[in-house]
Amino acid sequence: MIIDGFSRVHDYLRISLTDNCNLRCFYCMPEEEYTFTPASKLMQADEIESIAKIFVAQGVKKIRLTGGEPLVRKDAADIIERLSKFPVKLTITTNGTRLHEFVDVIKKAGITSLNISLDTLQKDRFMLMTRRDQFDRVRSNIDLMLSEGINVRVNAVVMKGLNDHEISDFVAWTKEQPVHIRFIEFMPFSGNRWDSAKVMTWQEILSRVSDEYDVLPLDREKHDTAKKYIVPGHQGTFAVISTMSAPFCGDCNRMRLTADGKMKNCLFSTSETDLLTAFRNGEDLVPLIHQSIRDKKKALGGQFTTDMGKIETSKLENRSMITIGG
Fold first, then answer.
1. pLDDT of residue 29
2. What is the pTM of this model?
């Protein structure tokens, strides 16, 4: 098992396949002229398989593929097939634009749940937020996944003055379809112009929903990052990922591997461990993995607290979201 200094067992690995993306969401990829990592510096398919195998041998039970947009990688299907052979729960976080091309791959790999990012239900606002005209494709692919029996969780980053007025619209969506909406508090990363005044907190989101609906809380399962709720009579649910106002670090079990093979023990960690270079040099990765987790801070990478008014973004040491992999 992989255990940190606070007795937290880490059995969930998030692997970023690429920092490339076919959308340009400003909170994730700040600049239009972003320089993507050269292919030679990315983990190759066989390297991803081999490194993942080491993590599985150390107790990993769940692997999530992220990006960038993982499905823009030309060998994404090959990677999915390779990882599907491990005794883990395999899943993907995607922007949904290419899912129609991967239906057979997803079903063959035994993937039963997907996280799909969608921050607005309005086509014009989607264009504003992503700088791409892909709204209809994403919506149709969500419907496609539901028709295939895939559990769909829709991730929506909520920001005041931008899309917070759509909160009730998202919850209304759960009445007729079994979608699971996850509202995410706006988080600070390098270059994403984070401002505490833009953060719509868990309490504010719940209050907004409660103004229109009767809401029942759902039980929290161990390692849950989201506070979950249901409106009686609705097929789906909604939840809030309250990273900024009420973090869930106490029983964190997540590890991250960036597309260029760096291990991060926390989304907000200041340090990284270069597993890819070590692997290519023939080194034993097991001690490096365990040391990285032993060095993990108690909460939020040790960089800030829930007092958002005191967060100085200029002093945060981190990558942009797209280079971390979420």
1. 64
2. 0.91
